[in-house]
Amino acid sequence: MVKPKVAIHSITGCAGCQLEIYFVEDILLQILDKIDLVAAPMIKEQNYDGKVDICFIEGSVTYDENIEQIKKWRENADIIVALGACACDGGVQQQKHFMDKEVVEHYVYGEERKHLKAVPPTPISDHIEVDFYIKGCPADKEEFLWFLKQLLVGKTPKQYEKSICHECKLRENHCLLEQGRECYGPITYGHCSIMCPDFNHACTCCRGPMKDANFEEHIKLLVEKGYDEQQIRQRMQKYAGLRVEKLMNNDKNKS
Questions:
Q1: Where does residue 182 rank: exposed (0-12), middle (13-18), buried (19+ CB within 10 A)?
Q2: Same domain, 42 and 106
Q3: 104 or 48: which leads in pLDDT
Q4: pLDDT tens digit string along 208-251?
Q5: Residue 60 is part of a domain; what is its CATH number?
C-alpha cells in the first residue's frame, strides 16, 4: 500500500497544537509507520514542497504572507484540515477586531509594527476551502489521532454536533452552571477530552460556538447568576468572537 503524503504546516499561532501532536505521549509514533510525513517544519530539517494527500494547517491569518502560504498549500493538497482554534475560528488573535488596532500593535510589536503588513486576524476558511476541522486550544491529541485513522481506513470523519454539556452528562459530572459557575458548555462543540469540566474548571468555549447555540439565552442565564454581561460577551469573543457575532446576527435577522 502506498502511504499517504502528509504535511503539517503552521502560520500565526503559538504552535501549541503541534506540540500536542509531536511531544505528548508519543501520539505521532502511533501512526508514523502508516503515513509519509513529508513536511513538518517544526521537527523536520528537510521538507517537501509539492503535492500531498493531507495537509494540516495550524494558526490564523494575520499577515499578507499567510494568505499566500495557505493558498499554495490548498493548491498542493487533496485534503486541507484546519487544526486548532486559530485555524478554525481565528483564535485569540481575532480579539483584535474588538480592540483598538493601533494600541494592540503597539504593545505586541513595538517599533517593528512599522514594517509589518498585518491584515485583520481571520480563520483560514475565510481565504481557502477547508475540508475538515479539528477544534480546540490546543487541538485534542486523541481527536487528531482518531481523525487520521479514519482517513487511513477510507472513512470520512464526521463533524461532531453535540455540545460540551452532552459530554458532561455522559460522564455524570456535576453541572458547573448549577454550581453558579461561569461555564460555556451549552454553546460549545464537544468531542474533546473535556479535561476542564472533569477537573472542575468551567468550559471557556475554546472549541468554538455551535451553529445552533442559543447565545442570548445563555447570556441571560449567566446574568441571572450574577455575572456582568459585558464580561460574558468578552469571554465569548476569546477564541471565536467573529463567528459568535455572525451567528448572533443571523439569529436576530431570523426573528
A1: middle
A2: yes
A3: 48
A4: 999 999 999 999 999 999 999 999 999 999 999 999 999 998 87
A5: 3.40.50.700
Residue 159 lies in a domain: no
Same domain, 125 and 174: no
Q: Does 146 lie in the same domain as 170?
A: no
Q: How far apart are CA 8 and CA 50, in angstroms?
A: 13
What are the tens digits of pLDDT across the range 9-27? 999 999 999 998 888 767 7
Query: Could you give the CA distance from residue 230 to residue 243 in angstroms, rounded to a whole number?
Result: 17
Regarding whether 172 and 148 lie in a shared domain, the answer is no
- DSSP SS3 for 213: coil
| Whole-angstrom distance, CA of residue 91 vs CA of residue 114 | 24
pLDDT of 255: 65
Please name the helix (run of DSSP H) or strand (run of DSSP E) that holds residue 54, with its range, or none. strand 52-58
d(CA 48, CA 67): 20
Is 102 in the same domain as 184?
no
Bridge partners for 136 per DSSP: 139
The C-alpha atoms of residue 55 and residue 43 are separated, in whole angstroms, by: 16
Name every residue whose Cβ is closer than 8 Å to that of residue 190 and which is 6 or more positions away in sequence.
Answer: 160, 162, 163, 164, 165, 166, 167, 207
179 found inside a domain: yes
Structural domain for 247, as ranges? 164-254
pLDDT digits (tens, 9 = 90+) for 142-189: 899 999 999 999 999 998 899 999 999 999 999 999 999 999 999 999
C-alpha cell at 172: 455524570
d(CA 172, CA 245) in angstroms, rounded, equals: 32
The total number of structural domains that make up the chain: 2
Q: How far is CA 26 from CA 10, 20, 37, 145, 186, in A?
A: 20, 9, 15, 11, 32
For residue 199, what is its C-alpha cell?
477537573
Same domain, 124 and 243: no
